[in-house]
Amino acid sequence: MSRAIKIACGSVVVGLVVLAIKTLAWWLTGSVALLSDALESIVNVATALTALVALRIAAQPADADHPFGHHKAEYFSAVLEGVLIIVAAILILREAWGAWQAPRIIDDPWLGLGINLVASVINAVWSFVLIRAGRRLYSPALEADGKHLLTDVFTSVGVTIGIVAAVLTGWSWLDPALAALVAVNILWAGWQVMRHSVGGLMDEAAPEGELEQMRALISANAEGAVEAHDLRSRRAGSALFVEFHLVVPGEMTVDAAHDICDRLEHALHASFEGSRVTIHVEPEHKAKHSGIVVL
């Protein structure tokens, strides 16, 4: 079992624990704002399960039907997470509207808030674990899950502040108003998750910093070649696809050109874990004199 899948399994467990804690907080208080927080935790569990399934699919090796692998399954997971987040926001708005029409006094608020605070601390710690692991392992599913969980933490902080204000002032309308603000915040988070994932599905190029690093590696490790040009790259989950043309002297043997390609592939693999490198060798008269100069 890969590290990414182990972390995704941990997310499911953490999500279920936090859901139970937040549900208890809502049951004790009857607060619609705490209910909205608990509803978002249901989405957290659903998105954690979705990420786990996507990571298991993405880990499958390439086959005849998917010669480039299954890495993009993670992007579909992140898009689905965005959709689920938006659904949660709609459910919260529905509850907020009902509570706005018939506001009620919050029962035993301090105990409920204390219990909810425990859930928020767990979420905060785990969200940073997910975001860090997602970036290190180039996992869109884990990173999206972490960012969503971090949004849940901010939501819980806002809910706590609002409920405290409602209790101290006696303004019961603050409870549903706060739930509505939570829903708007969740909608924004869902949009951000979906926008990032759609970029991956559309084969966006690697960041400029990574492209500069690739050019430097090619320039430093292509001794014997003339130039390299038409560098292209794209990310698909943990996989990084790199393609370029390598111009060699016309009299160079196939073996010698192949040795240069092997050297370049090794250098790129060493710097970019999970990279898939394709090099097209061309004779000297195909040089464009505008690509990567070989040192």
TrEMBL record:
InterPro entries: Cation_efflux, Cation_efflux_CTD, Cation_efflux_CTD_sf, Cation_efflux_TM, Cation_efflux_TMD_sf, CDF_Transporter
GO molecular function: cadmium ion transmembrane transporter activity; ferrous iron transmembrane transporter activity; zinc efflux antiporter activity
Transmembrane segments: 7-29, 41-59, 75-93, 113-133, 153-171
Signal peptide (UniProt feature, chain positions): none
Cation efflux protein cytoplasmic domain sequence ranges: 207-284
GO biological process, one term: intracellular zinc ion homeostasis
Pfam family membership, one: Cation_efflux
Keyword Manganese: no
Location relative to the cell: Cell membrane
One term under GO cellular component: plasma membrane
Membrane topology label: Multi-pass membrane protein
Domain Cation efflux protein transmembrane: start-end pairs: 11-202
Source species, domain of life: Bacteria
Principal location: membrane
Key words of the record: Cell membrane, Membrane, Transmembrane, Transmembrane helix, Transport
Family, as annotated: Belongs to the cation diffusion facilitator (CDF) transporter (TC 2.A.4) family.
Protein name: Protein p34
Gene source species: Salipiger bermudensis (strain DSM 26914 / JCM 13377 / KCTC 12554 / HTCC2601) (Pelagibaca bermudensis)
Species lineage: Bacteria, Pseudomonadati, Pseudomonadota, Alphaproteobacteria, Rhodobacterales
